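User: Hey, quick favor. My workstation is busy. Could you predict this chain's structure for me?
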Amino acid sequence: MSVVADRTLDCVGLFCPIPILKTREALKAMDVGQTLEMLSDDPASEADMKSWTTRTGHDLVAIEKHGAVFRFLVRKS
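Assistant: No problem, here it is.
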């Protein structure tokens, strides 16, 4: 399944908690149902995104890893 993101956020090179903070800010400006693609090479970002989306109720649609870079798809809810 290929999800097309409404917006992409490049957090490569940034470390916890910056990718989550930037994700939160980006989603604030988006409409419910829109999808944000967030790219991060922070090894902690997978666990961070899982716990953050659980806490906030946003939908973590997909997690992919390409080399050192994670690709998260988050649907605003």
